[in-house]
Structure formats: C-alpha cells, structure tokens
Amino acid sequence: LSLILSLGATKDMGKMLGGDEEKDPDAAKKEEERQEALRQEEEERKAKYAKMEAEREVMRQGIRDKYGIKKKEEKEAEAQAALEANAEGSLTRPKKAIPPGCGDEEEEEEESILDTVIKYLPGPLQDMFKK
C-alpha cells in the first residue's frame, strides 16, 4: 500500500516540478460536452424564469383590470396620442397654454388682490387703506 502511494506521490511531484503532464486524448471532447451542458442548463433556467414572469404578468393584469389601473406604457402612449391629436394639422409645435391673468398685467393682478384683502378688513382699517 505504501508503495502505491509513494508511486502516485512521486508522479504528482514530477508534474509540480515541471515534468511532462499526461495528455488526455478526450479532453477537448469532455470540455465541449461540459460547455454544452452549461448552455443547456442556462436555457432551462431562462425558460423557467420566463414562465414564472408570464404567470406573474397574468396576475398583475388581473389586478389592473379589477382596479382600473393602467400600465406605465399605456399611460405614455395615451399622452403621446393626445399630443399628436392636438398638433394634428399644425405645422409648428403646439402652443403653450397661458392661464388668464399671467403675463404683462402684473400691476392689475396685485391691485385686485389688495382690493380683495381690503374688502375683508373691518371698517376703520378699510378707511386707512383707501386714503
């Protein structure tokens, strides 16, 4: 028994010291089979997760239908369609909506706010502000 161990040990020692290594004639074939097995496992894993995600999406869609929720993509598509409908027939970009009271008429806006505040003040204070 010790003779067998010592022969195996010296054989390994020779490899470590830079001796000739045994060449496995089927090494390339084994490596190719190993790579193929890895690819197959990866495909099976992807298929498994794709199936799980499809099941989750069915459940999500059921919840969206039940509560009337729209997907983010659907909301963006509707917003884009609305912009296109507004710009249909127009050769320029859509105009920005300016709310009334905005723009050059700043002084009138300030006066109207002041008048509104004065209306709610007690009588003697109203007289002070009107002078």
Automatic annotation (TrEMBL):
Family according to the record: Belongs to the complexin/synaphin family.
Record key words, sorted: Coiled coil, Cytoplasm, Exocytosis, Neurotransmitter transport, Synapse, Transport
UniProt GO MF annotations: syntaxin binding
Low complexity bias (residue ranges): 79-88
SUPFAM superfamilies assigned: SNARE fusion complex
Pfam family of the protein (one): Synaphin
Basic and acidic residues compositional bias, start-end: 12-50
CDD domains: Complexin_NTD_CPLX_I_II
Single GO cellular component term: perikaryon
Protein name in UniProt: Complexin-1
Source species taxonomy: Eukaryota, Metazoa, Chordata, Craniata, Vertebrata
Signal peptide region: none
